[in-house]
Structure to design on (101 residues):
């Protein structure tokens, strides 16, 4: 009879790497830094974003972000109870609560 062990994290730094990426994501939105924000994504013909009941390809997503930055002159984010669960090398699921004001 074998024993079952839990898998080790994909990397020891996964949690901090994901939290750093989330902080960078929110900072680029707060600063309305379009080029830095878009650099966080990998455009391509299979790029798809689901946002507020809408689906966007790369061109539509860029237009959506430009419109958002134009309509929301100031925004700040707080990230609470962020948990990062590595699921495979180079992949993790982050859950938590973020508030935009």
């Amino acid at each position: 009879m074998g024993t079952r062990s839990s898998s080790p994290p994909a990397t020891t730094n996964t949690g901090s790497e994901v939290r750093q990426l989330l902080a960078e994501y929110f900072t680029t939105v707060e600063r309305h830094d379009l080029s830095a924000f878009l650099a966080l994504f990998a455009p391509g013909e299979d790029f798809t974003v689901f946002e507020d009941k809408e689906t966007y390809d790369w061109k539509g997503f860029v237009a959506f972000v430009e419109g958002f930055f134009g309509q929301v002159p100031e925004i700040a984010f707080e990230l609470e109870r962020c948990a990062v669960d590595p699921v495979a090398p180079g992949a993790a699921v982050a859950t938590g609560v973020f508030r935009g004001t």
